[in-house]
Amino acid sequence: MPVYSVPEPLDLDLNLQVGQVFRWRRVEGGWEGVDHIQHYRFCGEHVETTGTLEDLQRLFRLDVALTALHAELVRRGPELEPIIARWPGLRLMRPSCSREMLFTFLCTANNHLPRIASMVERMAALEGPGFPSLERLAEVSEAIWREMGFGYRGRTLPLVAREIIARGGEDWLADLRTMPYADVAATLESLPGVGPKLADCIALYAFDNTAAAPVDTHLWQAYCAVYGIPGKILTDARKREVGEALRDRFGDLAGFAQQFLFVDHLRARTSA
Q1: Which of 69, 105, 117, 186 is 20 to 30 A (C-alpha) from 212?
Q2: How many other β-carbons are positioned within 10 Å of the β-carbon of residue 117?
Q3: Is 59 helix (H, G, I), strand (E, B) or coil?
Q4: CA distance 236 to 195
């Protein structure tokens, strides 16, 4: 495999452990993982990969200058300055396969990172190389999904695959990459089992729509703390309100702002 120098310091320990991607693991000397059909192994300042340097840069968004991005986020929302200072190496990852990320995030609801990673690996093993086709995902019965440990998701996964095929399959997925945020979110929420939080996760990571701002308990608590909102029960309506508030403030950078708020709260909670 080709070997490249990592273009700049890259905080893998941070970026690979906060729920952006799930097909990565620690190995001796570094990390290895998969992005669709591309394999990566990081060791020190070098990375072996089956992909190109451009693939690497795209995945970790190395084409985005962090200094300029952080300055613009702080310009739009000065309250983020201390949070960004705590996590200067945080990057919003940009996986390459929309299908893979859509079905990956269908596994994340009411779940935790190690179990999600295990489920995604079992899903990926259904067909290789890469990630299973829509047709393969659709043909696996609910009973088999449940036997594989997917629980209630065993019903949703084939239903979503069949629905996407009915709407146009890979062409339909490709079209979502060209649509504005509101249309993408509404379209995703029309899929079986997809609510506002999942729709935003999928919009952000499957379709690179950086106006998406997924709101879960961590983000809600961070948002309440930073913006002085009295703590309330998180409902779907409040998820939409917070997402819209972040888009009003940060525009197409709402996904980046959300990531800093989310990670800051997550890391504070896990280190407490």
Answers
A1: 117
A2: 18
A3: helix
A4: 8
Asked if omega into 129 is within 30° of 0 (cis), the reply is yes
Eight-class DSSP state of 230: P
Catalytic residue among 197, 218, 239, 265: 197
Confidence of residue 8 (pLDDT cuts 50, 70, 90): confident
Q: Are 140 and 160 in contact (CB under 8 A)?
A: no
Q: What are phi and psi of 179, to 5 degrees?
A: -95, 150
Q: Tell me the pairing of strands 46-49 and 38-43.
A: antiparallel
Q: How far apart are CA 28 and CA 254, in angstroms?
A: 36
Q: Answer positive or negative: Cα dihedral of 35, 37, 43, 48.
A: negative
pTM reported for the whole predicted model: 0.95
Tell which residue, 208, 175, 192, has the closest CA to residue 61. Answer: 208
Reported as a single tens digit per residue, the pLDDT across 209-241 is: 999 999 999 999 999 999 998 878 899 999 999
Question: Which single residue is written with the structure tokens 């939409």?
Answer: 240
239 catalytic per annotation? no
